[in-house]
């Protein structure tokens, strides 16, 4: 499990380093996840330890939203003042993200 965490965090760190060094407008963890995906495609398989660790992290992912909820409560005056624009922005961005994901899924499904 430790080795799998080192691999996951190593790719995340690598993505951060590349983004900061090249000044790319992409989050480092996204670049690292893409590099990990390419490495796994090139390798042709996923180790059971890496798969098990990734599934364990995903099962507990909801715990990562607790700090965000505390931040919302801490800055409630901002949400009272800008609540409607924030809600509209969240809804529109969620719809756009789902639409983009559906279009990509359809395009890949045709291949």
Automatic annotation (TrEMBL):
The keyword Cell membrane applies. One of its GO terms (cellular component) is plasma membrane. The keyword Plastid does not apply. It is a multi-pass membrane protein. InterPro entries: LrgA/CidA. Keywords: Cell membrane, Membrane, Transmembrane, Transmembrane helix. PANTHER family: HOLIN-LIKE PROTEIN CIDA (PTHR33931:SF2), HOLIN-LIKE PROTEIN CIDA-RELATED (PTHR33931). This is CidA/LrgA family protein. It comes from Acuticoccus mangrovi. The lineage of its organism: Bacteria, Pseudomonadati, Pseudomonadota, Alphaproteobacteria, Hyphomicrobiales.
